Amino acid sequence: MQEFSLIIDGEKVAAHQYFDVINPADKSVVARCPQASLEQLNTAIAAAKAAFPAWSALSYAERRDHLLQLADALEANLERLTTLLTQEQGKPIHGFANLGAGFELNIALDWIRKTASMTLPPEVIQDNDAAHIAIHRKALGVVGSITPWNYPLLIGIWHMIPALITGNTVVIKPSEMTPLTTLYFGALANDILPKGVLNIVPGAAEIGGAMSAHKDIAKIIFTGSTPTGKTIMKNAADNLKRLTLELGGNDAGIVLADADIDAVAGKIFATAFINNGQTCAALKRLYVHEDVHDALCAAMTNIANSMKTGNGLDADTDFGPLQNEKQLNIVKELAQDAKDNGANFLCGGEVLDETGYFYPITLVNNIQDGVRLVDEEQFGPILPIIKFTDVETAIASANRSSVGLGGSVWSSDIENAQRIGARLECGTVWINNHAMLQPDAPFGGVKGSGFGVAFGEAGLKEFTSIQTMQTAKS
C-alpha cells in the first residue's frame, strides 16, 4: 500500500493520525492518509506566509516557468494518477464518451498550461498632460483552498493555478474522501516550486473551519455545498477575508418543441450523467415540451439501457459507483420519494450490486415540481424529466429554485433559445449543450450557488486586489 504524507514547507511530513481512503467500487482500503492537526495547519500557513514575498516578487514569466514544469511532471505521471483517481473516486479509467479519470487528468493538464499563459497587465485609464493613471493588480497573500470529492485534482487545479500565477501562495485541504491524487500532485510540486509556495493538509471539517477563520489566510476559495459555504462565510467575517464560493446547483434544461431529438438526445444524456451525475453543473432537471417528450424519453432510455455500471478499473465500464455511501443513500431516498409520489421509472431505480456504492443510470418521468427529486440536487445518476406545454411555465419552474449555477435551452431556433436563456436565473447558460467549461470562459453562480467567478481574466482577478497608481505630470 502506497505511503502518503502531508506537504508542508516543501517537505513530506508525517502525521500523528491517519484515516482510511475507501475504494467506492469494492469498499476496500486504497491507502492510509495522513490527517493534519491544527498545529500542522498553522505551520503550513506560516510557511505559505513566509514564502509569499519572494514568490509574489517574481514576474509572471518566472512563475509561469515553474507552473509549466509542474504540468510536464503531471503529464509524466498521468498513468499512475489515472489509476489512483479511479481507485479513490470511482470514475472509470475511460468510461462513457471517454469522460472518466483520464479525461479529468488531461483536462487538468490543459488547464494548467492555459491558465499559466494568462497575465493581468496594468490597465491604463488615463495618460495625458495632467496625469498617468493605471490600475495594478496585486497578489493577496496566502490563499486557502477547500476542494470536494467529485473532481479531486481538477478542482484543485482550478483553485491552485490561478492563485499561483497571480503571485499568491496556497494551502489546500482536499476532501478527506479523495485526498490521494492531490497529495501525489503535491509531492511532484515539491521538486519544482519553492518551499512553502504550495502546502497540502488533508483532514476533517475542523481543518476547513480553522482555515476559513485564520487571520493569516487572505482568501478562501471553496467548491462544495451551500450550507458549508454559509459556514465558511461566517467564519471569514472576522478578518473580512476574500471569498470565492462555488456552491450547489440544480441545473435546469428546457427542451423546446422544435428541438431535433436525434441530434440532442445523446448530448443531453452525456451532460446529465457526466461523472455519474456527480458534477455541480450537470443537467439535473429536464423540462421537455409535450410535443417531443415521448420521443426524447424513448431515445434517452435506449442510451441508458446500453450502459454498464461497474468497477471503474474494468475496461468496459461506462459508469462507476457513487463516491461514498452517504451520497448513495441520498439518491436512494430521492428515488423512493419519487416512487411514493407516483413517478414513472423508465429505467433503473433499483440497486442490483451492493459490492460497492453502485446505482444504475435512472430516468424518471410523470413527475412535477414539488417532488424532492425535482426540487433538490440529487448529485447522482438519476434524472427527472418534466413535461410542459407552455414555455413560460418551464421558465418559471427553472427559476423557482433557490440556486442558480447553470442552465440550458435546446432548440433548432438559436435566436429564440438565446432569448429564453437570457431569462434564466443562473451564472452560465448553454444553448444546445450543458456543463461545458473552458479555461477562458468565466464560470460562477447566483443566488444560493454562491458568488465570485472562476476561469479566464475575471477568474484571475479574484486572486488580486486593485492598486490605483496616479502619477502627476504637472
Automatic annotation (TrEMBL):
The keyword Cell wall biogenesis/degradation does not apply. InterPro entries: Ald_DH/histidinol_DH, Ald_DH_C, Ald_DH_CS_CYS, Ald_DH_CS_GLU, Ald_DH_N, Aldehyde_DH_dom, LUC3-like. The active site is at E246. Keywords: Coiled coil, Oxidoreductase. SUPFAM superfamilies: ALDH-like (SSF53720). It comes from the Bacteria. Residues 17-468 form the Aldehyde dehydrogenase domain. Residues 64-91 form a coiled coil. Pfam families: Aldedh. Gene3D superfamilies: Aldehyde Dehydrogenase, Chain A, domain 1, Aldehyde Dehydrogenase, Chain A, domain 2. Belongs to the aldehyde dehydrogenase family. This is Aldehyde dehydrogenase family protein.
